[in-house]
Design a protein that fits this description.
The longest helix is centred in the last third of the chain and has 17 residues. Helix 5 runs antiparallel to helix 6. Helix 2 links the parallel strand 2 and strand 3. The N and C termini lie far apart (50 Å). 44% of the residues lie in helices and 12% in strands. The protein is built from 6 helices and 5 strands. The protein has a 5-stranded parallel beta sheet with strand order 3-2-1-4-5, with helices on both faces. It is α/β, with parallel strands linked by helices. The model has no long low-confidence stretch (mean pLDDT 83).
Length: 155
């Protein structure tokens, strides 16, 4: 089976597969929370392992608590991720006897920001900084304003 760390991992994996290759009905997929579980179902996965809907948290630990009772000895597990993280879950599966592989389905990176959009964001921060507690430390507000002005000019 495969464990997907997020809805983004599900979407990236499913969009990369050939259109004529549906998810095998006899293969389970695991999700750390309801968003990922929903994405799996939306992509045609029928057997989803996930924490209960009323779990106190939704993360790898919650998933492991929901599935650790299963017989993992000799099973193969693929962890589909976006780079880094989830080592603890891989370790737990290995300790339970599973063979674990990982694959990076996407890369996490900041969204590109265009010049006008960046200028607008910087200007908004600058205006906010000017209003921020001038009475307690007027020097800090001036320094922050000067820094943001330099950033908005690309210097």
């Amino acid at each position: 089976g495969a464990m997907f760390v997020s809805p983004t991992a599900v979407n990236a994996w499913m969009e990369a597969r050939p259109a004529h290759a549906p998810w095998p009905s006899n293969v389970w997929a695991a999700a750390p929370g309801p968003g990922t579980a929903r994405a799996l179902v939306d992509h045609g996965v029928n057997h989803v392992l996930a924490p209960a809907d009323d779990a106190p948290q939704f993360d790898s630990e919650a998933l492991w608590n929901a599935i650790k009772h299963r017989p993992w000895q000799g099973k193969r597990v693929l962890i589909v991720h976006g780079g880094g993280g989830r080592e603890r879950l891989a370790t737990l599966w290995r300790e339970a006897g599973a063979t674990v592989d990982t694959v990076q389905a996407y890369a996490r990176s900041p969204a590109p920001v265009g010049g006008e959009r960046l200028y607008g964001a910087v200007e908004e921060i600058r205006q906010t900084a000017l209003r921020f507690r001038r009475d307690e430390d007027p020097g800090a507000a001036r320094r922050l304003d000067a820094l943001l002005r330099r950033l908005s000019r690309g210097k």
